[in-house]
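Need tokens for this chain, all 437 residues.
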Amino acid sequence: MQLNTFYNSKVFDSNDKEIKKVLDKGISKLNRVELIEFNKKLLKSKLGDSVNKIDTWARYNTIDVINDMNKSGIANAWIGFDDMEEGYISPEIVKRANDLGYLVGPYDSYHSIHKPGEEKWSTASFKDKSLYENATIENKKGEKESGFQGEGRQLNPTLSLPSVKERVKSILDEGYEFNSWFIDCDATGEIFDDYSPNHITTQSQDLKARLERMSYIRDNANMVIGSEGGNDFASSTIAFAHGLETPAFAWVDKDMSKNKESEYYVGRYYSPTGGVPEVFSKQIPVKEKYKKVFIDPTYSLPLFRLVYNDSVVSSHQWLWGTFKIKDEVGSRMMKEVLYNTPPMYYIDRTEWEKHKVGIISHDKVWSEFNKKAIKREMTDFKFISDDRLVQMTKYGDDLKVVANFSEKDVKYENEIVKSNSLVIYDNNKKVMYKPEQ
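Here are the structure tokens for all 437 residues:
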């Protein structure tokens, strides 16, 4: 719907009042939001009553789902698009999410830059076409540092701010009511020395520039800022971080990342229905050796939470949402409560209906606990069984969680904590919780 060549005078009536108004202005002068609306009107003018009214298009899979989430009791959420362009498909969803009190924001990145005219994804394209030759990072050998997945080059952050300002302004000028912004890679710790003779840059300067561009968007556009990773150096700049609780790890094994015949394959970045791609929705098992490193609660230490619980919200990396791993959904829900980690879901109509009961029941427990825990420091963490499968976190003096990840009931003080369940102690109140999967 973003084609500026969709209008054809032989097909559409140029005397139609609404069409003529746009033609008089000039199609080339329309911004992306206006262009989409114009093309919708063109399509409707030919299809007539055989299709629904324009303002209902895409609602079933977007706004209606958001409304149902809110009606179901989910009062707080961050809604992020998986691409910088996704908000243009249904601009109304951004406004509706904002009206309901949710945080909503685009995916953005200033990490990779592709050769002009050969861009493979939207964030790797910049209006300033000189950047590709004049603002990319070189190593000691004088070779250009490759971008993500070996595509393109690494943009030098110290030379990126004018493009950051231009991109953010152009999106907001089109009328979007974003109140949040997710910037990929800037908090991961991937920083560079740039040996290019024209812009020699140290890692310290690189890091400072990353923080400056995130701070610029936060302060000048009044956005709640998040990034991937959430390393210590970014804690004073970002409000949320993706990837600390469950990092991205599919790349370590070809059965997960490349072998499409494997049961462990994470899935394609594609959805035949236009909804949630299978890389997010497909549930897979994980090999035992990776469970030990990335999933097993006996190896979990919430060190970041012990320091930053009351200042940075940390979550899973977006490829590893709450429902992603077969046979581990319940234990991951328990860890989300234990460590005060927000659950992560990928929502369209199909996924919402599929997981609605589990999402709502988990949200009731997690959100009530989070309202109290997020305002406090995590003051204590303990393994309270020899096999490390019974764990306790404490938030201040009167709020704690005891989680039993084992297959047998255990006694904690004078309380029996059932297998694969937890107990929240809030002053004299106790909440027992076994997740529904």
